Amino acid sequence: MVGDNVPEQGIYPLSEALRMAEERELDLVEIAPSSDPPVCKILDYQKYVYQQKKKAKEQKSNASKVVIKEIRFGPQTDEHDFQFKLNHAKSFLQEGSKVKAYVFFRGRSILFSEQGEKLLLRFALELEEYGKAEQMPKLEGKRMIMMLAPNKKK
Question: What's the chain's Rg over C-alpha atoms?
Fold first, then answer.
C-alpha cells in the first residue's frame, strides 16, 4: 500500500487495508492490479475522479484548434486581385491558420486547368516565406485545390 494517508508504506493484508481506509473515511483504490502484490492507495475516489476529469478538460482546451481559411480564384484572375488575395493569405498564415486556395472552373473554363495550376503554384511560391504547400494542386470536380500550412514559429 502507498499514499499520503498511509502511516507506513508496505504490504498489508486486505482486511487491514480496508480498516485503515474506513478509519480515515476514504476509499481503498487499486492502482496497479497486475503487479505482485497489487498496489493500492487510500484516497477520496470521488475527488480523484473529479480531478482527472478537470485535468482532461484543461488539456483539451489548451489543444490548438486548426482553422482553415479559404481563398477562391477564377482561372483568369487579374494581377491586382491576385495580389489582394495574396495579402489576405499572408495575414492568415501569420496568425497560424491553414489556407485552402482553390481555382473554381465554370462551364468550359475547365479547359484552362493548366492555367489554374500555374496560378496556384505561383501563389504557393509567393507565400514560401510564410507557409509551405501541404498538398500540391489537384483537380477535384470543378475545383483545383491546394492546401498551405503556416511555418512553425521558432
Answer: 30
Residue with cell 503487479: 35
Contact at 8 Å (CB) between 42 and 24?
A: yes
* pLDDT tens digits, 132-150: 888 888 888 888 899 999 8
- Dist CA 138 CA 136 (whole Å): 6
Judge contact between 73 and 119, C-beta under 8 A.
Answer: yes
Cβ-contact 28, 21 below 8 angstroms = yes
CB-count burial class (<10 Å; 0-12, 13-18, 19+) for 121? middle
- Full set of structural domains in the chain with CATH: 14-62 (3.10.20.80), 68-150 (3.30.110.10)
Residue 8: count other Cβ atoms within 10 Å of its Cβ: 6
What does 39-75 look like in DSSP terms, one character per residue? EEEEE-HHHHHHHHHHHHHHHHHHSPPP-EEEEEE-T
Inform me whether the pLDDT recorded for 153 exceeds 70. Answer: no
